[in-house]
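[Automated response] Your request has been received and processed.

Submitted sequence:
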Amino acid sequence: EQHAADPAKIRVLPFGANLPRSVTDAELEALIGRRQKTPWQFLLVGVDWLRKGADIALKVIGELNRRGFPSELVVVGCRPPNSIGAVPDYLKLESFLDKRTARGQLRLTQLYHSALFYFMPSRAEAYGIAYCEANAFALPCLATETGGIRSLIQDGVNGQCFAPHQAF
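Generated structure:
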């Protein structure tokens, strides 16, 4: 509007995954076909347990297990606070993985390959590159509508967004 540009000629291209290489379509098809079905594996990558909503994700995974759906949560990069008490057996903790190293890239790729869902119910998020990276591996994302997340996730296409106040 400020520049009198024709809106029909404007396209917004969202920022993509911050990965060293793209995954080919053939690799994606093979990856989807061999994903482990049970236990359901949910992946969360982040360095701030509370802001990334890892506590919420952990409660959801606990409830899934309680209801008879074998599930586990793999959390990369952050640790739960001591206040949670004993770490449940369905919580798998990975240390911070540096994508700038071959070891970090390899391990993170393995985790994206083995997960069934990317689950990060953030309380605050400006954009969420981790969602882009998960989608680069054809991993559907479960997230909260906060910050710029809605610009990345289309319900039923590449994941599902939930209102921040909605109980998971």
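Summary generated for your ticket: The first strand starts at residue 40 and ends at 45. The radius of gyration is 17 Å.
If you did not submit this request, please reply to this message.
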